[in-house]
């Protein structure tokens, strides 16, 4: 037990079992210029299962700035050929990638559950999201619409076309380790860019599986490059590299700010998807059973580790008691365990740091006035839980909106219920946080639903549904500290991965001057 506790100390999960005796786990190298290569550092880090840290999923290179340099050079070399391949041809390759993902869905889902803990149904959903994104976005190969518009002068044609931005650096998180890389990779490729991907240290295997599939379908060498390692070294080297025209980042608001500053230094394009503190509003006319279902799914799906998680529930006083009783009952009955076990409702959290951060917030919640810990609140560490990072599904009730647990992103299985007296109050509380990703309302009243839709300043809004579950053909992203104005997914993502070129064709055979008053110079 003491050993286990030591192993589960305040380290990230990759280091957690370094002391355990075992056979050497499989090594998964970087992918640079079409070759599978180890890092110049010669070092490897371990990717361990957060449900059982004795299970090492694989070893991955601790890469350096030199590896990034090589990957960037490879992506630069491949750029012209890929950009000149007609977009429908690029798309054909991507459709074949979709077929591989379908074929491998189960294997990739199992490996994903092993490396990051969420239950099999959800990792299957993650791979499915990558499949959906691949098919939907590859379809853009035959669209990538520009537009024409009248010119100011006769015998002159005006149009706008999209051009690739060039070399893209993709920095991706661990909570959707195949879906989110695909949200960035597929549009980048269909638009004619080349990429270097740096996946989260906790989940390199799922990105490896995606990149390996790219190799299998014949995406040319150098078009997609994978470099694993630490954010402070490889992430920073990628972000700072003068040849990288665009950084697309998903992760914390704090890291996002560093990425954005670094991009600003060299005028690079930067698209950010960051934190959330999403709210479900439950009005007195709501179908309470349905609202409880939505809150349970939104708060505890992926162990609450979604940027769209329902970490606040604002409930009208008239149904408050009924709602909270049911929510607490449901939360208590969730089966926590290994995500590979079909009976499990909720898996572990990602690593020791996350565990301590979440438990820290639970402590803060208990210290803060007026919030009541209605259920959960503890780490599970006996028996089947002894070697993993498990936290009980936790509900705080009777909270007030200014509390830290009602303001800050916890990114764990913790939700905070706040009573209100009116829709206006609910909307004010809903908007009263620094983030603006997703919000939802449960009501049977169409007027209220539309009013809330209009008033909530978020990038995503749901009616009679939870705050999670965005679909890939609609834009995804948020306002305020959640993003910097871009949207992924949908066709809107094309505005990240292309730049507009306005084209004027003058076929008058004479000089025609725009913005010059008609003056006769003859
Ligand atoms: C995230 O949590 O970063 O809308 C992405 C959802 C998922 C994507 C979440 N489709 O919950």
Secondary structure layout:
Blueprint: H1 2-7, E1 30-32, E2 35-37, E3 44-49, E4 52-61, H2 65-84, H3 87-116, H4 120-138, E5 147-150, E6 156-164, E7 167-171, H5 179-190, E8 194-198, H6 204-216, E9 224-226, H7 231-240, E10 246-250, H8 253-265, E11 269-273, E12 279-282, H9 288-300, E13 312-316, H10 317-332, H11 352-367, E14 372-375, E15 379-380, E16 390-391, E17 394-397, E18 414-420, H12 423-431, E19 435-436, E20 438-442, H13 446-455, E21 460-463, E22 479-480, H14 494-497, E23 498-506
Helix pairs in contact: 2-7, 3-4, 3-6, 4-5, 9-10
Bound molecules: 2-aminohexanedioic acid.
Describe what is shown at a glance:
The chain is built from 14 helices and 23 strands.
Structural class: alpha/beta
According to CATH, what is the class of the largest domain? Alpha Beta
List the ions, cofactors and other small molecules found in this model. 2-aminohexanedioic acid
Catalogue the unreliable spans: 1-11, 15-21
Strands of the widest sheet, in order across it, are 14-17-18-13-12-20-21
Shape: globular
> What do we call the CATH topology of the largest domain?
Aldehyde Dehydrogenase, Chain A, domain 1
Query: Strand content of the residues, in percent?
Result: 15-25%
């Amino acid at each position: 037990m003491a050993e286990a506790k030591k192993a589960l100390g305040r380290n990230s999960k990759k280091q957690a079992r370094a002391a355990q005796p075992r056979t050497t786990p499989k090594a998964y190298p970087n992918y640079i210029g079409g070759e599978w290569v180890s890092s110049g550092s010669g070092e490897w880090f371990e990717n361990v299962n957060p449900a059982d840290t004795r299970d090492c999923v694989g070893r991955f290179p601790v890469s350096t700035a030199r590896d990034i340099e090589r990957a960037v050079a490879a992506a630069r070399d491949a750029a012209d050929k890929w950009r000149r391949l007609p977009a429908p041809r690029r798309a054909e390759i991507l459709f074949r990638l979709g077929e591989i993902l379908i074929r491998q869905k189960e294997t990739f889902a199992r490996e994903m559950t092993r490396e990051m803990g969420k239950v099999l149904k959800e990792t299957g959903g993650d791979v499915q999201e990558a499949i959906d994104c691949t098919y939907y976005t590859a379809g853009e190969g035959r669209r990538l619409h520009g537009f024409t518009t009248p010119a100011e002068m006769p015998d002159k044609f005006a149009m706008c076309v999209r051009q690739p931005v060039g070399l893209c650096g993709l920095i991706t998180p661990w909570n959707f380790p195949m879906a989110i890389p695909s949200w960035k990779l597929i549009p980048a490729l269909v638009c004619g860019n080349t990429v270097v991907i740096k996946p989260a240290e906790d989940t390199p295997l799922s990105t490896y599986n995606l990149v390996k599939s790219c190799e299998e379908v014949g995406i040319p060498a150098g078009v997609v490059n994978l470099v694993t390692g630490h954010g402070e070294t490889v992430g920073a080297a990628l972000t700072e590299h003068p040849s990288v025209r665009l950084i697309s980042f998903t992760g914390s608001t704090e890291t996002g700010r560093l990425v954005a500053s670094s991009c600003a230094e060299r005028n690079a394009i930067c698209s950010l998807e960051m934190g959330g503190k999403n709210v479900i509003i439950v009005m007195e006319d709501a179908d309470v059973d349905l609202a409880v279902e939505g809150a349970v799914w939104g708060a505890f799906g992926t162990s609450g580790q979604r940027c769209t998680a329902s970490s606040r529930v604002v409930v009208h006083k008239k149904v408050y008691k009924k709602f909270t009783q049911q929510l607490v009952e449901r939360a208590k009955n969730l089966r926590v365990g290994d995500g590979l076990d079909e009976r499990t409702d909720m898996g572990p959290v990602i690593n020791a740091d996350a565990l301590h951060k979440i438990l820290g917030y639970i402590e803060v919640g208990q210290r803060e006035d007026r919030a009541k810990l209605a259920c959960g609140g503890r780490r599970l560490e006996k028996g089947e839980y002894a070697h993993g990072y498990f936290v009980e599904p936790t509900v705080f009730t009777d909270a007030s909106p200014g509390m830290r647990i009602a303001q800050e992103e916890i990114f764990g299985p913790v939700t905070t219920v706040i009573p209100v007296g009116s829709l206006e109050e609910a909307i004010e509380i809903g908007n009263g946080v620094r983030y603006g990703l997703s919000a939802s309302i449960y009501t049977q009243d169409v007027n209220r639903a539309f009013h809330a839709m209009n008033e909530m300043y978020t990038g995503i809004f749901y009616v009679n549904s939870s705050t999670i579950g965005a679909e890939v053909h609609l834009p995804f992203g948020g306002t305020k500290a959640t993003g910097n104005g871009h949207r992924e997914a949908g066709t809107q993502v094309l505005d990240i991965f292309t730049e507009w070129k306005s084209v004027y064709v003058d076929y008058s055979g004479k000089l025609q001057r725009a913005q010059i008053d008609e003056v006769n110079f003859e």
